[in-house]
Amino acid sequence: MSEKPWNGRFAEKTDRIVESFTASIAFDRRLYLYDIEGSIAHCRMLAKQSIITEDDASQIIAGLGRVARDIEHGNFELDASLEDIHMNIENRLTAEVGKVAQKLHTARSRNDQVALDIRMYLRDEVANILSRLTALRQSLVALAKRHIDVIMPGYTHLQRAQPVLFSHHLMAYYEMFTRDRARFKEVLKRINVMPLGSAALAGTTYPIDMAYTAKLLGFPEISSNSLDAVSARDFIMEFLAAASICMVHMSRLSEELILWSSAEFGFVEIPDAFATGSSIMPQKKNPDVAELVRGRAGRVFGNLMAVLTMMKGLPLSYNRDMQEDKEPLFDTVDTLKRCLEVYEKLIPRLKVNRVAMEKAASMGFLNATDMADYLVTKGMAFRDAHRCVGEVVRYAMDQNKELHELSLSDLKKFSRAFGEDIFEILTLQQMVNRRVSGGGTAKENVVKAMNKAQEALKLEVAENESDQKKKKTPR
Ligand code: ARG
């Protein structure tokens, strides 16, 4: 058991059960690189301000470098009796460089240190997520481009409604994930604030230079209120909320893939490499990947609820409850990244069953609105046209026919306005391509949307690459 840094005031040793109960090292070890980088910057700042000597600083910095290597190579047994990653590193630094290590914690506290570490960790992970959102959207646009002429039934209430291009449907998800990316970029602004120097809660008496620390660590801004700096976790809540919304989108996509790959729909086939079988039913091929993405949305929402609830009653400033922010945060980061990655790989490999989609789009009176709109062009009011076509639909159902299978003389019984030109209007291609209103499903619109998306994605790729260069961890 290691000596506690606070044992000057304590007459008794910490109970073992308390040690294991309070320890966070099992999970906050993932912050080690950020902790060390933050300490190096802090140390440089202390030396620049003559709070410690240059000589002390170089010894500490060299020691921190060795500690980082040891952790990386697994030559460093992390000790639960030292509670967390911050104290483990400080302890190891003392073993490396001796007494001078004890000067590192001048003008800071673990409260501002942990706030700094999470912010550094999270901005790197947001950069990863931004790249993955670009990649996923590239997959969607590529699939949409390959199938630009495929028409499927569009749905409301899960009832066939009007035909749309399959590409239009895919591009709807492109839009959702584009907004998700914008949301993460927005959160990034609030993550990217440097709190170190706020110390325990009130700031410090040493003549520190927070702007310098911020510059060394690449933060565009420093915190403005020390109490807020050590106790704010809204940047985490915001991230978890953005992640939850993104998981809603992925879960809806999952639901559609699950439906579409069923025998009842048969619109797509999930590639064998992305499906699983049954241990008892030899014929089965299950969409487990999509089901698990849908299922994991639940835990991501749960993580958001956990942090909101943990924070809501806390008085200022730091409270130990806040250590509970990490596991939900890490779990959401891991879950979201894996879901994005698996869909980025799966989507380009979807097999699209054009015949099944177009057959479904041709049955069930999906051209009824177009027939009503036709009557409006011949001078009828829309409500009258709606009623008239409703009667035509009922008649066609009795005859066991679709609207386009009725004869002109049949149609004329319902309205004299019908002419030979109605039949062209009722074809799938016309129904799709005449919908040229803003964001409508007409091919010319969808082609434009896909081209615009590809241009935007190209710029994003360049942007992501420069963000990736700034970070410490792999994508
Ligand atoms: N492990 C702690 C956390 O994650 C670090 C800060 C501890 N501060 C303290 N005063 N006990 O929140």
Provide an overview of this structure:
- The structure is a single chain.
- The chain has 3 domains: 15-106, Orthogonal Bundle (Fumarase C, Chain B, domain 1); 111-198 and 224-359, Up-down Bundle (Fumarase C, Chain A, domain 2); 368-425, Orthogonal Bundle (Ribonucleotide Reductase Protein R1, domain 1), CATH 1.10.40.30.
- The relative contact order is 0.11.
- Strands 1-2 form a two-stranded antiparallel sheet. A two-stranded parallel ribbon has the order 3-4.
- 60% of the residues lie in helices and 4% in strands.
- It contains 19 helices and 6 strands.
- The radius of gyration is 30 Å and the shape is elongated.
- Helix 3 (32-48) crosses helix 6 (110-146) and helix 6 (110-146) runs antiparallel to helix 19 (443-469).
- The mean pLDDT is 95.
- The longest helix has 37 residues, at 110-146.
- With 475 residues, the chain is mainly α.
Look at the helices and sheets and give the structural class. Answer: mainly alpha
CATH fold-level name of the largest domain: Fumarase C, Chain A, domain 2
Helix content: 55-70%
Count of distinct structural domains: 3
Corresponding CATH superfamily of the largest domain: Fumarase/aspartase (Central domain)
Q: State the CATH class of the largest domain.
A: Mainly Alpha
The helix-strand sequence is HHHHHHEEHEHEHHEHHEHHHHHHH
**Radius of gyration, whole Å:** 30 Å
| Large-scale geometry | elongated
Portion of residues in beta strands equals under 5%
Which residues sit in consecutive blocks of at least 5 with pLDDT less than 50?
Answer: none
CATH architecture of the largest domain: Up-down Bundle
β-strand number: 6
> Multimeric state of these chains?
single chain
Number of helices: 19
Largest beta-sheet characterization: 2 strands, antiparallel
**CA distance, first residue to last residue:** 37 Å
Ligand set = arginine
Q: Taking all residues together, what is the mean pLDDT?
A: 95
Strand order of the largest sheet: 1-2
